Amino acid sequence: MAIAKAERLMNLALCLLGTRRPLSKRELRESIEAYLEAGSDDSFNRMFERDKDDLRELGLVIETVENLDGEVGYLARRDSNRLPPITLDAEEAAALGLAAKVWQQARLAGAASGALQKLRAAGLPEDVDPYEVHGALEPRIPVHEAAFEPLMLACRDRRPVIFDYRKATAAHPATRHVEPWALECWRGHWYLAGWDRDRGAERVFRLSRITGKVRSRGTGFTAPVPDVVTVRETVASWAGEIADRSALIRLRSGAGYPLRAKATSVRELGDGWDELEIPYGHGLDAWLVEFGPDVVVLEPAELRADVVDRLRAVAKG
Question: Contact 78/17 with Cβ under 8 angstroms?
Fold first, then answer.
């Protein structure tokens, strides 16, 4: 079965690469023996669509062209499927191998492995093992949210999305219409940066607060997409990484080690509590809520009020 499919894919690729004009499904079916043996039009259509997707997954650029009569044809132009020679030195190959090892999810791991195999065939140095361990620490980015994969694909394809999002201060989720820009990981949490169509402004969404399925809606973006550096700065600001002032909190002894690592000063209060001064930026209230009863905000007043509001929303369910 595997040999038969490989032969069918090879024949389809040769047909698409060898033609000077788009070929219709009918013409492709008449040219490839395996398609002629398909029991019905539905069987052929399913087989052809799977084969076309498999070839695109392998890297073949297949164009879809509609003629004046409305008939759809397919071809793979040689100039679109020809890559220049790829030369990588040992450091560049090691960087690619490190990037490939970051992803632990099955779908991304398979894509990374396939990409490295293609690079090996295209000129990756033979004396470089891209999977070789280059340090004592194993890179890993965990992804547990079901929304990650559809959002990753939507960012890549520039497709607007719709999802239900529950703010930390809200008891129930609300529907958001977003033009997704990029996914960024901060402090072990994934965030989506994009343009919120309903609010007409850029927004950052934490993936763990997305409920239900991510749905694609419409095509094309209405707002310009900023560069990667600007997106990362936006996520950093919303995730609380950029702080321009200080907050004073009371922290239970032996708890909240991430907060202690950020603290600029620590003072023992006794009775099992310490007083910490920590950098205060956007998103700090959401982070403090995660530590529950081990944290009490002393000042500023607006931060204390935000934390109380979030705790009340959690209590309401």
Answer: yes
Neighbouring-strand partners of residue 201: 196
Closest CA to 183 of 212, 204, 210, 214: 204
Q: Phi and psi of 66, rounded to 5°?
A: -110, 125
- What the block records as the tokens of 68 is 């004046």
8 Å CB contact between 107 and 149: yes
pLDDT tens, per residue, the chain with 317 residues: 455 788 888 899 999 988 888 999 989 998 888 888 887 888 889 999 999 988 888 888 898 888 777 788 998 888 777 766 667 676 776 666 666 665 555 455 566 666 666 666 555 555 555 555 444 445 555 667 788 889 988 888 889 999 999 876 666 889 999 999 988 877 667 889 999 999 998 888 989 889 989 998 777 788 888 876 567 777 766 665 566 789 999 999 988 888 888 889 999 999 999 999 998 877 778 778 888 889 999 999 998 998 888 888 777 76
CA distance 166 to 144: 17
User: How far apart, in whole angstroms, are the C-alpha atoms of residue 152 and residue 266?
Assistant: 40
